[in-house]
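Deliverable D4.2, example record:
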Amino acid sequence: MTPPIVTAEGLARHFGKGIAMVVGLEPATFSIALGECIALLGPSGSGKSTLLNLVAGLDESTSGTISWPGISSRQALRPLAVGMIHQFVALIPTLTVAENVALPLRLGHQAVSDNTVGGALAVLGLAAVADRLPDELSGGQAQRVGIARELVHCPTLLLADEPTGQLDQATGQAALSVILDHVRRHATTFVVATHDPAIAERVETVWRMEHGRLIPLENGSAA
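Output generated by the structure prediction step:
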């Protein structure tokens, strides 16, 4: 039997102490299967980003445990095994669009080819801006560059935090189609945090976040 790619037991995250303490995530027990596509649905401030950052290994829990049996240890998550698409993308200002997209491959000591990088840009409608610097891009273009950067290295686990938040509805749906096509062709495990039910409807499993509490809705394996 294939082990889950992520498993958590009583995972919780608090910020601050005493009366100033804020609950980011109440204790949650869940597993994410290899190749599973999950939408984490909830309003702003509900804890979606907190949970994603814990799953990505970018943050430490206050209590409970999390492991990545389908990958290896936390140290093996980056730069290639896990990809994270952020709502507000951070591009390196001195690198061109193409160089930004190629960065995970270079950090992971993987071969970088014009075809690989160019293909990732073209599918997101960015071929014409490959040689531009980030400050020459619109916000929507920068957002799509961030998506291309995380798809190009074919991560085992792809996480996305409001990946279409900076895009208009039509462009956002088109970008989501690119992401979903990629994860299904490569059997990538995918978790997307969103407040938009239209995005949640396009994946197989839906979990809801409410006031820091994780609630499975459809076919979920959380408890």
